[in-house]
Amino acid sequence: MFAQKHLLDLESYTAAQILEILDTAESFRRVLDRPIPKVPVLRAKTITNLFFEPSTRTRISFELAEKRLSADVVNFSASGSSVAKGETLRDTAENILAMKVDMIVMRHPDSGAARYLSERVPASVINAGDGMHEHPTQGLLDMMTMRQKLGSLEGKKVTIVGDIAHSRVARSNVWGLNKLGARVTVCGPPPMMPLDIESLGCTVEYDFGRAIEDADAVNVLRIQLERQENQIFPGNREYARAYRLDDRMLARTKPGCIIMHPGPMNRDVEISSAVADGDRQVILEQVTNGVAVRMAVLYLLSGGVRESLGQDL
Question: pTM for the full model?
Answer without folding.
Answer: 0.94
